[in-house]
Amino acid sequence: MSRAPQPFDHTVRSDERLVLDAGTVRAWSARTAEALERERAAIDAINVYPVADGDTGTNLYLTADAAHRAVEAVFTAPGASGASAPDTTDAVRALAHGALLGARGNSGTILSQLLRGMAGVLAEGADGDHLARALAAAASSARAAVAHPVEGTILTVAAAAAAGCADGGALPDVARRAYDGARTALEATPGQLAVLGRAGVVDAGGRGLVTVLGALVETVTGRAPEPPPASPGVRDLPAGTGESCGPAGHGPGHESAEESGHEESGYEGSGCEVLYLLEAGDDAVELLRARLDALGDSLVVVGGDGLWNVHVHTDDPGAAVEAGIEAGRPHRIRITHFASATPAPAPLAEAEAPAHARVERSPRAVVAVLPGEGLAGLCAEAGATTVQARPGEPPAGDELLDAVRRAHAREVVLLPNDTELRAAAAAAAERARAEGIRVALIPTRAAVQGIAALAVHEPGRSFDEDVVAMTAAAGATRYAELAVAERQSFTSAGVCQAGDVLGLIEGDVAVIGQDLTDTARTVLDRMLQAGGELVTLVVADGTPPGLADTLEAHVRRGYLAVDTVTYHAGEGAPPLLIGVE
What we know:
globular; 4-stranded antiparallel sheet; 6-stranded mixed sheet; 16 strands; 45% helix
């Protein structure tokens, strides 16, 4: 439970922290994540710019949570004690890096750049003067990361925070003055951005940044600052999806709704939000910015030192990803489609909501968890909202719920594609249903089952019929996976050694081999003994050259009535996935 706000006092007290040491950074990261989780529904409800998508608070929370988990990883790593305990530099760099990797939406991406800008200065020193310089660097770097900055947004609030404490001083006083400057600027945002004024709300991203700075004040003083006033006419509402996402032409730096003749709270035409991490040099990123700016809007590119987080809204997601491939190596690609649709009658709760808080939804969408950036991109091109499962980092329930919201649909089919994700997916589905979204969870256990289900998906038929057909297709697909053993262990097929190739059929180790291609042939033969009409091969990066061709030829020679289709999963997937329908 948060502490009750106390009257502000700019006097430095004996119990206040005078430097941001590593422990203080850790406490700040935890308090920030907690505060944003607590306030995200209220922030979601006032998200009206650049479109009324209703999850700015959720995106900020997920970004801050990723940052905090990165800090915790530094403190809980083996040997992180005594002389090897993390220092301020370790903590702030982990904070910034975690936010960069976990950034969501426009606001989360900008928050990650703010933290990165702060980290560069705080690594040099952690007193009040350095905090003031860090906030100035953060505001400047965040503004530079946005292709077309707009006043009345989180950028304005960040600049005001920096200006409020520019003279430096003791750490608690600097934190307070930064918070006061941000809070005052936030209250002025409705007068700077017409859409905010008409809706009677402050900027949602700016409100989130005030929350972050409030957590800093409470961390260094032990006292919660006075919260920003609630926006008039706004009440807590079910969160929407896809913060700051919409068709090209509705983001920062492009004409306003009044100039273009469109309402900010709706969508026109088709559009996508494209996000990915990118490994590339500075020169390549500058060229990428120019190319993406011509492809869409809401362009934000943050990062540095060879690793970047790219965010853009565009009607041509394939071109946006191709631009990243030309610039360097993109991964963790996330594409969210927004389909053009005539609004159907809204549920009662949505119909009663203020006009600016309504979210225009498409009739139906599919949300799929997929390993490998290539496979995720492939399914996104087929119209699915995707969540990429990274090795050792299964998506949490909040991430699945975020994807359901981002799908912008009244009806959602959720494909977890992993037995171990079933509980998290069920919890996310229940939370989404409480928000008025009809969700059907198909308990797919592997990506190939999800592909089979997506292949028969038809939005034009009734929801129940579609779910039955997709469930039948998934259930008719037997699945296997090839993996490399990391250590000696006992399996259902015997003892394996580190480096052995394991062939798992329906989740159990059935074959132990030394060569990936030979083991794959054996697994295929065992699966096809029970019959089959179609073999699906999903090949990851780093597999032997020609593996897919070899296996396709093997199927053609031995099983004349069986067709084969191959997909490339890219990086982050098991070496080989096999499906037999």
